[in-house]
Design goal:
Length: 424
């Protein structure tokens, strides 16, 4: 019996040991599972942190502009406006939704081949999230398919050719610049009427031909007759032969579309068109070109922008800040650069910093935003910004060495809305 008790006791002890080991194993497994859970949580947190880190990477914007050559002044104006626009829209922080904003400017040299190469470099080497540009319609049209290929939003400023938001448009393209049809409506409103005979002069380029085509349609809609269309070499410096053909056509008005430093105003003055009964009309250009237009005091026309015309807080800020920074007032394309910057920042605020096209496109379609020219709205169908233009008269003004655009009336975004030409 004693041995039986001893064996019973040993058996009980053995069972207790096995049970204890089993419990210990369960506890260990449980502890390891818990530890595994904690490790998984750490990995998830690290992964989340990496995601947050990527989303907190800088937003990179690539800006294409003519920073040299015939359109250099336009490119510089756009660059200044864009930089000030970012300052304004971010309250000076240069960040949006927790992401810093970095900008890379590239000179297209007003050459479509160069513009294409620079755009590819910005997208593939610099890794920009958004493109902006450019000063020339030809440069811009060369880049449109690249934005589509890389699936990146491109904000067009200040190129105006209708085809950019027309035949050559794709869904990645938004334009803060006005287009040729908007200019045409404003230009026609200044001079066209029933039976008025009009001739046109423009560069032989996408900008010039699109502009004339749009103006002709708008003027005819108001009852005017187009008696002659003259297209000059875009790089010409002497327009005498072109203007002689216009004189022979004997119109009531000559409507001029031009961009660049090589303007036709000296020959128009020398050939005394106004004394021949031909009134000249155009979109009032930048201040440098206005200085060549002293003989055209009294001219009726339109303008995209002159710093004294808009009455709003954004323009007040721009004029003041531009004078502080550069010692002069903002010029024709400065507010366009600012508007492009504001549109991007406002869109990124709404997407909480998501700069992918999948987020930006639906956000920007139909989006309204405040600019130096008042409220702009990206039309859903073609992403063209609807905006205010100005019917003006050029007048002498004390203290100015150029004829000043004086407001006749504002042309509302609804009034200047161009036709939808992209088939949407």
């Amino acid at each position: 019996m004693p041995w039986k008790r001893i064996w019973s006791s040993l058996l009980m002890m053995l069972l207790l040991i096995v049970f204890a080991v089993g419990c210990s194993s369960d506890d260990t497994a449980s502890s390891e599972d818990e530890g595994s859970g904690e490790d998984t949580g750490s990995e998830q947190e690290e992964t989340s942190g990496e995601d947050a880190g990527s989303s907190s990477e800088p937003v990179k914007i690539g800006v294409l502009a003519s920073l040299s050559g015939a359109l250099e002044t336009y490119g510089v104006q756009t660059k200044r406006g864009f930089e000030l626009g970012l300052e304004y829209a971010t309250d000076g922080t240069m960040e949006v939704a927790g992401r810093k904003i970095e900008v890379v400017f590239e000179d297209t040299e007003t050459d479509p081949k160069v513009a294409r190469q620079k755009a590819i470099g910005l997208l593939e080497d610099e890794g920009v999230d958004v493109l902006v540009g450019s000063s020339s319609s030809g440069d811009t049209k060369a880049v449109l398919p690249i934005a589509k290929q890389h699936e990146k939003v491109m904000v067009v400023e200040p190129a105006v050719a209708d085809s950019i938001t027309g035949a050559d448009w794709n869904k990645y393209i938004f334009r803060t610049a006005r287009n040729s049809s908007q200019d045409a409506v404003a230009g026609a409103a200044a001079i066209a009427d029933e039976g008025v005979e009009i001739a046109t002069l423009a560069p032989d380029s996408a900008f010039g031909r699109d502009g004339v085509g749009a103006f002709v349609n708008a003027a005819k809609d108001l009852g005017a007759d187009i008696v002659h269309q003259e297209f000059a070499d875009a790089t010409a410096t002497d327009f005498t032969a072109n203007i002689q053909k216009i004189i022979e056509a004997d119109p009531d008005y000559l409507f001029v579309i031009w961009a660049g430093a090589n303007t036709p105003w000296n020959q128009i003055s020398d050939l005394k068109l106004q004394e021949k009964g031909i009134q000249v009309s155009t979109g009032a250009p930048d201040i440098a070109a206005l200085k060549t237009m002293k003989p055209l005091v009294g001219m009726e026309g339109f303008t995209v922008y002159y710093h004294e015309l808009p009455e709003n807080e954004v323009n007040d800020w721009l004029v003041k800040r531009h004078e502080e920074e550069y010692g002069e007032v903002p010029d024709l394309f400065t507010p366009g650069g600012m508007s492009a910057a504001i549109s991007i920042v406002e869109a990124l605020k709404k997407t909480e910093g998501d700069a992918t096209a999948d987020s930006l496109i639906p956000t920007m379609e139909g989006m309204s935003f405040d600019t130096p020219k008042g409220t702009m709205t990206f039309r859903e169908e073609d992403h063209q910004a609807l905006q205010t233009l100005y019917k003006i008269t050029l007048e002498e003004k004390e203290g100015y060495d150029y004829p000043v655009p004086v407001l006749e009336r504002k042309l509302s975004p609804e009034e200047t809305a161009p036709p939808i030409q992209n088939g949407q």
